[in-house]
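Notes from the pairing session

We agreed to fold both candidates in a single pass and log them together. This is the raw record for the first candidate, unedited. Please don't reformat it; downstream parsing expects exactly this layout.

Candidate A
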Amino acid sequence: MSTQSSQIAHYHLPGLFEFYELYKVFLPLYRTHREYFYDWCDIGSIYGAPTDCLWGGGRAAFGDADPYDVFALMGEYGISSRLTFSNSLLTKEHLGDTTCNNLCSLFEKAAKPSGVILYSDILLDYLKKKYPHLYFVSSTTKVITDFEKLRKELDRTDFMYVVPDFRLNTAFDKLDVLTQVQKNKVEFLCNECCNFGCTDRKACYENVSRKNLGQAVPEHHCTAPNAAGGYRFSLAMKNPGFIGIQDIQDWYVPHGFTNFKIEGRGLGSAVVLEFLLYYMTKPQYQLQVREAIYLDAMLDLF
């Protein structure tokens, strides 16, 4: 890093349940061959939710790994698990969901504290009382694009981290005058591919929330240019809100920001591997990592 090299960038990675098989191979590699990976970054957490999770939001989850297997893997490598419970439409009648409560009860027992990413204050109040050992993350599904609203969210003592909308990623002058306590709580969404001028982002998230509640709703159709082609990392890199590794080294960490979220749920393990290669792996070792993952995990490309 060019400055403040003692600061570590913490990545929060996608697919806690969805990409269990990928992480089962990647994490041993990350531990035994640390020289393959940049020494200025580490894994802050892995986040996600199982398939058909009532409290889920943000993305329709596809993870079907056994929660006890996931719990054991994260414990073995000392990584914080985060349950993505960012449904924006929860009511008190949803709080008794057995599956979600069982997940909270399990992951609250982790030696490395587990977190919950959430939108709903109803859920927040419930979890604070019932599972006091969990920490909480304010979800990007709140679509906080107003900087003063972000500042107020950062000042809420309930949250250990706050993920603003990606369109605040480059509000450099405003970000720089945050206090260090506030900066420590900001978690930037790095690789969003969504149209920078999108006005339907909140509606899109709400559509997912309704699906997770079991409501029969029509599919939300994105009207953005290139939407039909789905997620493309190459396009995300051209997004005005994209945060690349050089940006992290040259501006964000030197200015006191150390938490970075990588989008990727629902994209497939091969795409997520590309994120791990780009954000964490030294170029001269990317082939070794790619070969190890494909040969050991028989990672599906299609």
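Candidate B (folded immediately after A)
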Amino acid sequence: MDKHFDVIIIGAGPGGIYSAYELMKLRPDLSIAVFEAGNPLDKRHCPIDGDKVKTCIGCPTCSIMSGFGGAGAFSDGKYNITNDFGGTLYEHIGRANATKLMEYVDEINMTHGGEGTRLYSTSGSDFKKRCIQNHLKLLDASVRHLGTDKNYVVLENLYREMKDHISFFFRTPVEHISLVDGGFRVDFEGGSATCAKCVVSVGRSGSKWMQQVSEELNIPTKSDRVDLGVRVELPAVVFEDITKELYEGKIVYRTQKFEDNVRTFCMNPRGAVVNENTNGIITVNGHSYEDPALQTENTNFALLVSKHFSEPFKNSNEYGESIARLSNMLGGGVIVQRFGDLERGRRSNEKRIEEGTVRPTLKATPGDLSLVLPKRILDGIIEMIHALDRIAPGTANDDTLLYGVEVKFYNMEVDVDENLETEYPGLYVIGDGSGVTHSLSHASASGIYVARRIAM
């Protein structure tokens, strides 16, 4: 293939999808192509079934992390409408504009299968006062919860609307971007294509590729952060008062020992813990569902500690990967440990977990997280669990399960201007692959924003 398009979008995650959708609406005269390393939505199937296949088998392309919908396709579909977390898009385009774009994304979701889902809000919540009284901070946000099932429907409907107007190339990872007269050329196995405008939206799983492209084109970047921690699983009733009112509480605690910030992330009421494969490394995440028939008796959420590195160290993601590899080496994948065992300084075993009151939703290897996570991070997590126990009694029970490790890799932040455009006119970098956004809502909003700039 050697074809010219007006716009090429690299990556069919949230940023790429909403950018393509908005361009299709505003400029139907443009020829648009989307190149995606993974599969179409209907061919994204993880072989792990908990029965015959219990752990990751290293598929050529990970259906959880890549394909139409990106890593968010099988997430629990939480769209947080806020500038308090989820990225720094507002620093480029302004707070009011960022909020309006996130609200517009919500409108699109509601007209493509998300109607009837609830928009939660922390505004006026009594829970905020309870947090303050216990040295915790509840971040402000409106949260639209689609659920993994409804999120899938929204993506199906968006693809159905776009597929006859936009050229999609699946299982076609782009290898290089180069400058040519009048625009850019993208190279992939078996060919290349050229375009006047190029939008890069490769998500977190494309972090290493984005670094390579930035080096090849001499685009300045900076990288200094990685989030490390565990995923907590406990009976849903423990957090039921919170999740019924807020669905997800973004709670931050400043530890007494080291004054590190520990935060809750990705809370999944009556959800399931799942594996993730990032660059061949198995980590842990969580899903939840809108359909009551798919719900479990447990709630899970991450507890993460952000580590910011200073010069001369520049490889924050490699630091996170090294810790995740250690977990994989010791446990063959994800490790699970009872909180009581962790505090007693002993590894968990199958017998104690089976006798516990929390039935795990993920098949993981019983082990000892203290052999994996740095002491400072683990001490912060233990402090946070006891702090949460004061607002949700039962959090610090012996049988509470901790899965490790959970790592949130942050792409190096690519140097882009107020239009999310690099120093090369017409080359935009959006979504989590830019390092500017860290959430579904912010990534989607960045796609809308760039589409409107191109359509002008």
